[in-house]
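User: Before I run my own analysis I want an independent prediction to cross-check against. Here's the chain; please return only the structure tokens and, at the end, one sentence I can use as a sanity check.
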Amino acid sequence: MTSVTFRDETATGRALAEFSLPGLPERISARELVRLRVREEVARHNAAPSRHFRGLVTPTDAERDLNGHRLRAARKLDWEKQAAAAEAAFARNGFLLLVGDRQIEDLDTEIDLTADPVISFVRLIALVGG
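Assistant: Structure tokens:
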């Protein structure tokens, strides 16, 4: 079993936030890594629900905020809905997934966590006006 660090970064590589998750298998698919990350961040939010959620994707009925997402009311979130939204966001290039210096382009890609224990997520922002 190995420990992985999930890191949110800007497009220039500046770290915004990170957390570690121990006890993961040595090899895992990118899809399962995304789902594990989302499940953990939702569990942390649900332990003390508030109007602010720091997560990979925006929950339903929330607005993007400077440092996350602002909910209309403090509530618990459904991690499976958030995970499905994260998979959909990946498919439409809503964020990049980097393992070491390699970009993952398919969620079915197997990742060796012993070789690359830092998983970086870079959110992409759509430009107005094309």
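Sanity check: The two ends are 45 Å apart (CA to CA).
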